[in-house]
Amino acid sequence: MARTMPSTTITCLLVCLIGTSPVGWAQSATYRCQQSADPVQDRNAYLLTLLSVDPRAREATADNRVLQNLGRRLTKSREAVYAACLQTKACPVDQLMLNQIEIDTAGDELALLARAGGPLNRLVHDEMRPSGRFQKYAGSEDSSFMRASWVETAQGVNRLYKVYALGEKLATAKIDGPLHEAGSETLRNDLASALGAEIDGASADVFFSAWSQLGFDLLVIQQRTEAGRYEPLEGGENRAAFARARTTDWKSQPYTAIIVPGIGLSEGETGLSPMGAFRIRIAARRWREGLAPFLIVSGGHVHPNRTPYSEAVEMKHELMERDHIPEAAVVIDPYARHTTTNLRNAARLLFEMGAPLEKAVVITASEDTSQYIQSREFADRCARELGYQPVDILDRISPFDLRARPNLISLHADPQDPLDP
Description:
It is globular, with a radius of gyration of 22 Å. α13 links the parallel β4 and β5 (about 330-335). It is an alpha/beta fold. It folds into two domains: about 10-225, no CATH class; about 235-410, HUPs (Rossmann fold), CATH 3.40.50.620. It is built from 16 helices and eight strands.
């Protein structure tokens, strides 16, 4: 297993979002990702990170009476919930959630601040738009862009409460569910500890901190911090490949990358699954044939639940040790939990590497999975679960290989999927 790298300031190569088209693009540009002390928040709620770390944004929200009144309500609620957790068998964390009126009201205020000439307008243009994290709203004018981004973020943080504190059932509970049941003594004790630590360090809070801190602390309590486990990827596991990407002559390559979707372990298996091993044998052969300069292997810590093995990390080890593929040719996505997000996350990595979007990729998998990715069933699943197609399938070049083109919309972060947003 790879070690998690320390949190540092990182540079992300992302697409420069020019014009109003939500799917348009111009050229690659260097965007410096802002970071808080919590990489899980940074990936799940990048807007909250920006509002927290940007001095002008902090000043603007601190000067807004409506937002500060909301902050005072949340601070008082946190203190009341903490007292209840200590003194009773109940721990009413739902009192810390934002209700829909509060979400909408805060969204209206942030939208006003984001208007042309407003104190948050620079944040929209210099941070939010070029980050790609809010790409679904790229066609909106600045105020609407900010409001939609806030509402989506707020609903995502509220969902952390619903699932990991209040017991809302997940369709994917077998791989994404909580460790401690709602109402259990262990959960109550852990919540009290989290709230106490938050109150002790609350002097520098921004208006939403009392609410958001507990939301992300719930992922710590439930040991579901997968989303930040390998950050920063480009400074750790993907360092060699990203350095090589900066000097790659993309025009001379038939394809930009060979994408290999992962497959999880069955009970009793360890390391790399047999099916995963056979997939990457084919992919390594394609790389040696010169189809693309990079292999992108994708798959997180998924099957069985809470497995210590990441499909992508294990595939990388196998490619390097058995197939003698150089590390600088292997890019990992250690987060994806479904075939849909295998392709979505690979598309994101290509953007971050500065790969030209007009060139196709090759998706290499076992024959049955390859047929599934090309099927109407899979396209319908992407539309249902993601809201878009992460890649456009172009054609088939072998029983195991598809040609496809990644879609820019894949950059959009999904706060409703906290283990792999």
